[in-house]
Amino acid sequence: MNIFMSHLVAEMGQDQTKQQIEKGLKLYQSNQTEKALDVWTKVLEKTSDPGGKFRVLGCLITAHSEMGKYKQMLKYALAQIDTAREMEDPDYLTEGYLNLARSNEKLCDYQKTVSYCKTCLDMQGTTVSLQLNGQVCLSMGNAFLGLSVFQKALESYEKALRYAHNNDDKMLECRVCCSLGNFYVHLKDYEKALFFPCKAAELVNDYGKGWSLKYRAMSQYHMSVAYRKLDRLPDAMECCEESMKIALQHGDRPLQALCLLNFADIHRCRKDADKAFPRYESAMCIMTEIGNRLGQAQIYLGVAKCWLLQKDLDKAQESLHRAEELAEELGNKLCTLKVCCLSEGMFRSRGQGEQLRQQVVKLLQCVEELELYCGMCGESIGERDQQLQALPCSHIFHLKCLQTNGTRGCPKCRQSSMKPGFV
Ligand SMILES: [Zn+2]
Ligand SMILES: [Zn+2]
To answer: What is the mean pLDDT of the chain?
Structure first.
């Protein structure tokens, strides 16, 4: 009788935990975030069921990620790993490490992200955790992109896409497409930079009836950036407005910051510095609040370009200096390269010979480290808008060079297959 009773009590604890988690989810989905957080925090304090504790931590991680509260997200991810260790369950442990990787990705700690992703991939879980591998690869791709390691980023995205296809996971496919859009913006293949987020938007239209609106908002944002780069500013404005509307409705601070930065850049492209500056400023407030240091570096770059438009070289130089500091702190070599390019032009126009020489040396160093050249013609990649194509080994070439030269293997790594990959 006693054993039966205590079993019953434990079961009730489990059921109640489950019920309360569901209650929180309903509140969260109807945009009552604070109430949902209250419910979940209470569950976390009171539950005796480790599985329930793990799950409620997962809810808290997602919610804090969406609000841009990345330090709290990291705290809950660490608690998840402790719980998974107590349970000695490799599937839970993998999920915990994935969340730890994601928290570090959001906090722009890219080296740590890569190493936690590797931990996930090395873990010998069951099929349950194997299904997480696609998400692990996506996070790893984002981290490599943050470190400007382009070939490895592309390799990771391609793997993530393959997992998405094999598991028929349209949400993952949608997220990878957005990341690929971002990837090609960096390498200045603007046709692909638009193609992938359009594909993401298509997935949202075809399959996304029950999805969170943030997927739509995300694809619209990435389309907007590509349109801006293609100088289709009215289209860029329209997509960015749509994205911002959703971001505001959902209290999605990280996306609001990205949209504000993009609005500022659109105004800068229209040579309207008066409208650009306050938007950069608002973007900076949120980026600082959430801890997106790469976003901050990008704002400083935009602000510097605006000052250059205004011909205020001192202020431009100050802003470039801030961007450079952040880029070096994060290990984002592409941002360092962009600072070098802008500084070089500025020192040249000012006739500051010594500083100019220093910048040229630095610039050449950056280009070499980034390996941004086409293995066929030897010329640079990512300097201007050009169509690119990757081989299955993820080495990247000019599309026209692959089409005209038609070799039997990759000239960079000699891998033989020439069949173009997904991306
Ligand atoms: Zn080439
Ligand atoms: Zn290769």
So the answer is: 91
